[in-house]
Batch of 2 targets.
Target 1
Amino acid sequence: MKQLKNIIFIASLSVLTGCSSFLDKPLENTAQTESISYTDLSIMYQPVSGVYRTAAGAAPGFVHWMDYGIRGVRGDDLEKGSTPGDQATLTDIKEFKNNYVSVQTFWGTNNCWTDYYGLIYYCNQALSELDKFAANIEASDANNLALNKRYKAEVKVIRAFAHLVVSRVFGDIPIMGDSADYNTMHKSTVADVRKYIIDQMDASVNDLEDARPNESAHIGAVTKYTALLLKAKAAADLAGADNSSPYWDVVLDCTNQIVNSGRFSLYPDYYQLFKRPGKLCNESLYEIQYTDFGTSSGTAVGPDAFFAFQGPRGDQRGSPISGWGFLTPSQKIVDFLTNRNDDIRLKTTILFCGDTENDFATTPSGDKIYGNADGLKYFNGKVYLPVSQMTAGRTDYGSDNNVRVMRYAEVLLLNAEAKVRKGQNGDAELNLVRERVGLPDITGATIENIMDERRAEFACEWWGERYNDLLRTGTAASVLSDYGFVAGQSDYIPIPQTQVDLNTNLQ
């Protein structure tokens, strides 16, 4: 028997301010201490399960509300929301004031960094644990040898994805591999981080299940197709707007494999896709899972304040559909969807509220959303869960809903983009996505058509895909000029000063 020791990732103690008392806690990641017998191969999946649960957490993990605030507020689809003084540094980030001390020393950027690197560190520890199980597998035990390789591959997908997320926020970052020493790590370029992700997926893809996540032996686990989409996303970042880049061949190959597998399909109801009926549907390539176990009280697994952070602000008369009012859809995205006659996406993406505190708007599901004293007109409809879909007795906004991260719609749109950039026709894939939301087909699709479709399809989702699309296509400077964006200066947020003080190689 050996002891699986506590993993504690503490980068700094910050003086935190904001609208929730838990902000006063130190940033840390503590894994539960357990007694592990590495000869008991029946529990070999435990380190992997721990990675998924950590990824679904807030500190570390993928869903801390502030991390999404930092990712999402850059771009033109979301405003900071709430009140001007609440987490005001998000406004500085929105306006690309990256040279401001307020941004460089912001508790939120440090939180974002430690959340992602805490998860990466946990992944490395899980891989070490899986090595210990592997040492106890007989050479003749082909089944458990294959399972061990699969489990390691799952962890590597999550680790690579965490690298992609942190690099899309901070740009040049350290690659924290199996033997990395956090205190001495050096930065790698954005391009090298993407190449690392591609290499990791190449090394892992054949060990993963040939299945949808909802078909996995461990329901919702990443599979071969998750790895292929992650590889395609990294390759698209490398290709940028260069139609002659060989990385478009990589994007096309990866997405063709997913499409030709015949395993995935678009969920027919876009509005319900982001609600309980759409959880782990056949469109999902990765989503972060939560549950209230169908019980009216007691234990529930949730994403901390992820949903509440974006919930409607103001007096909602006791309705669970309420929250802090951050990351409100911009007038620009409302106008964009309206002018396209994109009615289904509009009603899904935008949660309208009353004009005054005593007035309300009624959602398509019949819930009343009252106005507020802060002048906020819209809230994020993609985190809206109707009261009628909530488990009786549960009152936390978004309870029992998942966070959608990777979807088949992106596979189709990346496939269409790669084809058009290579001089081929991408109409079929583009029009599948359009037909789902009742839009007419396009003939002779252009890159502009596809990028507009990506904006409409993924607006206000977890990832913040819009901003990255503007960067990789070289259009950020023109689209975001009103916000102060300057190409080559504004692209990424500076690495937090706290981290530079801990490791001067990060300068």
Note: The CA atoms of residues 105 and 460 lie 27 Å apart.
Target 2
Amino acid sequence: MKVLCIVGMPGAGKSLVSEAARILGIPIISMGDVVREEAIKRGLSPTRRNLALIAEELRRLEGPDAIAKRCVKKVIQLKQDVILVEGVRSPFEVALFRRLGEVIVIAVHTSPGVRYRRLVRRGRSDDPRSWDDFVRRDLQELGFGIACVILDADVVLVNENKSAKEFREEAIDVLRRLLENAD
């Protein structure tokens, strides 16, 4: 099995890489969706604050790879040769996915100013409402160890000065090359 782990700061463009994978028929598991599912299961609205509290609690009670463990169950149920996991945040999570097979870490990089503007436009319930909110969220992500995962990435995609369509096309090309090299 090949697990493509997508990592990037909030608003970098991870979901566009996931869309590219979907176009290529690669199944996707979103780590953020796993936390949102947990919020709904608990009867909580998926606000940034609630999601952060749930993620922190899960990691505190079950270990730094708690969310990845829930994803592994989904990966196994899918029974596919290639799977994309969106939103990996820590080296512990990457290590857990390595137990399933070959892991390729793909980092998506975008400057903070561009990411902030995207998140404000996106307007999801867990997106920042101010620059201070944005900085706090970035610091929280860095606390999970995301910088280490980004630094150790096998592939880095830079999502600057491109339309969503252009970046998605670039991601499709990169994913195709990775799949071709698997054969």
Note: Residues 2-30+81-180 form a domain with the Rossmann fold fold (CATH 3.40.50.300).
